[in-house]
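Show me a record, fold above all:
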Amino acid sequence: MKKIALVAALAVISACSQPAEAPAEEATAETTADAEPAEVMAADGGPAYGKFKITQADGTSFTDDVRADGTYTSTAADGTEMESGTWVQKPGEYCTTKDEEGAVEECYPEKIDEKGVWVSSNTKTGETVTVERLPE
């Protein structure tokens, strides 16, 4: 009887010490695919959305209201809406698509220059603007 109890105890111990099964390869791949990509930040290191003052080379400025839902509105200094559309932040560039028939995505490289100023440029015109994040 003692031998049966000893064998049973050894069986219980060995069952408890078996390694856990590794997750199925398919489940691991599925979890990785479902993970959200890291958020791309604006040139100043903050979120890509918010309100921004854009100052052109001639000194005129306007405000961009870039919303977290992927839409934006540009407003002139006098309060007139200039344009609206959708936006996406990509590494090193801000891209917009206007809300008008046949509009195509346009991307503007942006960076913090050697003087610490946030600048963005239009590759078609060569024009450079400064960007300033406004408080919410």
Q: What stands out?
A: Strands lie at 50-55, 61-66, 71-76, 81-90, 93-98, 106-112, 118-121, 128-134. The longest helix spans residues 2-16. The chain is about 20% helix and 40% strand.
